[in-house]
Backbone:
């Protein structure tokens, strides 16, 4: 982590030259690489060991390369994979950017989410603090009802007490009801309404298009993350990332940690990715992505409309 801020040793007067590298400059907020590292964590892979990811990727490329690596020149081999130190350094920079973006999103969503879950035209009762989360999670009636795992009845006094006391532990793969449209779960059809709640759309727009676009067209003077990176469609990883952020914002945990066994955020994130990347679920996932793109990027070509049933086109495509 400290590699980015490290500086080279100052050259001596005797050995100095115009070609000698000066101190490494600290990346500024305007550095495009800083922005790209942040965006990578939000839309490609949020919770992983980035140095290991890069190392394994390089090894995979070498395995797929038709020409043996030994047949390349020394310079080409160096460009092909670089040194282990360089790979680890780049991985650390990506991790720093992804962690920074996650921290910023966590901070802004902590307050914004209270506006989205409040009953229309009413205040949350009892009130929830914007700068403290100690009274959220299962400690509060509203956040508890949203975090309650599907298949459990929040209105059951015994269930509610067990969740609040910690007697009933919730694992990351026990998905909360807020993931579902209208917060309604159909045990006969678990895909129905999954990842289609308005709460997720609000949070996604808040992070990727702009806070002002949550309930209207974007009017911010500064371009949102999506526009800055040429993003015109929703990615699977970005859906899982936002769902993880919303789940954490509703919880009573104050610090986001991959190893936190209470929120179990890493298991939650990966459980969604496992489903959305499963080839056997591609039909449902394609329909889901089309729906999301209509909500977030309605003017994009990615927001394609499903082919009408029994139309000539549908018969040709069969």
Residues:
């Amino acid at each position: 982590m400290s590699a980015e801020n490290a500086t080279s040793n100052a050259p001596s007067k005797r050995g100095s030259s115009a070609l000698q590298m000066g101190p490494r400059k600290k990346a500024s907020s305007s550095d495009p690489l800083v922005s790209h590292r942040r965006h990578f964590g939000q839309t490609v892979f949020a919770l992983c060991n980035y140095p290991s990811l890069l190392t394994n990727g390089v090894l995979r490329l070498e395995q797929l390369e038709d020409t043996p690596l030994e047949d390349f020149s020394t310079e080409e081999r160096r460009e092909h994979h670089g040194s282990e130190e360089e790979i680890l350094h780049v991985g650390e920079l990506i991790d720093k950017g992804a962690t920074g973006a996650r921290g910023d999103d966590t901070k802004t969503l902590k307050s914004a989410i209270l506006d989205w879950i409040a009953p229309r035209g009413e205040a949350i009762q009892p009130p929830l603090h914007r700068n403290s989360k100690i009274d959220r999670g299962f400690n509060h009636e509203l956040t508890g009802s949203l975090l309650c795992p599907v298949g459990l009845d929040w209105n059951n006094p015994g269930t509610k007490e067990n969740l609040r006391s910690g007697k009933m532990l919730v694992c990351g793969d026990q998905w909360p009801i807020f993931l579902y449209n209208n917060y309604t779960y159909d045990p006969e059809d678990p895909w129905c309404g999954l990842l289609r709640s308005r709460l997720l759309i609000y949070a996604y727009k808040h992070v990727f298009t702009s806070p002002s676009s949550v309930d209207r067209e974007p009017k911010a003077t500064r371009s949102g993350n999506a526009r800055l990176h040429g993003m015109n469609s929703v990615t699977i990883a970005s859906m899982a990332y936002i769902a993880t952020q919303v789940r954490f914002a509703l919880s009573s945990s104050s610090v986001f940690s991959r190893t936190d066994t209470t929120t179990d955020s890493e298991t939650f994130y990966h459980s969604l990715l496992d489903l959305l990347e499963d080839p056997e679920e591609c039909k449902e996932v394609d329909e889901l992505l089309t729906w999301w793109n209509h909500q977030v990027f309605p003017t994009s070509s990615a927001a394609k409309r499903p082919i009408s049933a029994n139309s000539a086109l549908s018969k040709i495509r069969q």
